[in-house]
Amino acid sequence: MVKKFTIANLKGGVGKTTNSCMIGYELARLGKRVLIIDLDPQANATQLLQRTYERQNDKPLRFDKTMMKAIQDDDVADQIVSVMDNLYLLPSNNDFYNYNDFITMKYLPTVKDYREKQYGFFGSLIKPIENNFEYIIYDVPPTRSIYTYTAMYDTDYIAIALQTEQHSFDGAIAFSEYMQSMYSEFDEVDYDFIGLLPALMTNKSKVDNKIVKDAINYFGEEMIWKIIPYMERLKQYSVEGIGEKGLTPTYDGHDTTTHKFFRSLANEFLERIGDE
Hints:
alpha/beta
């Protein structure tokens, strides 16, 4: 049975997309069948995985139609593309900004339980194909919006991305409160909070250490995942795609180090959801 996972924060630029893609990538390399769904109209996850495909195959990854066209056709299955063995993508596009207007018009406030229907609609499109995968990872924008509500309504597990700076910590607290209020408000919502993914801004400055300590004090030490060290290579992946020995023509020791760490993070995810 498929398990669905969302990494979130109400602060942008804290590593949500990078962590979602890297954990999904490493799960795929562990032999797990993974679908990454890009619910952010900025399409950063789509771009990263497109570049990864191009780096591996020396040709572009093309899409037959846009996300909104697939949704309007009530059929997103044909929009799913293979990035590499075991890793699949449901890509986003700029026209996905129109989803809010589309779903608002589809379920007007005069409709009974209209918010539940709005938030649950996308999940209903995923339902027919979700068990083709072992894990589905939602990538969402850093906003209280239909995109985040949609993922939260359909997900089984949520983790909060935490970059070691104050605004990110404030966003993590705000998202945890938002998460609790949604859980309490809607009977259909049923997710487990499985902790924070802290990522260092620098190599353990005083500020980094303070934010990690504050997070432990607020959320509890058992909720803190392995700390992600500062990795310059992750910035390169967003520009060039993910490199790895045996899969891309170019790679180096920094790639090996990065994959070793995120492989351990993927295993921690499996442990936290009881799939070790």
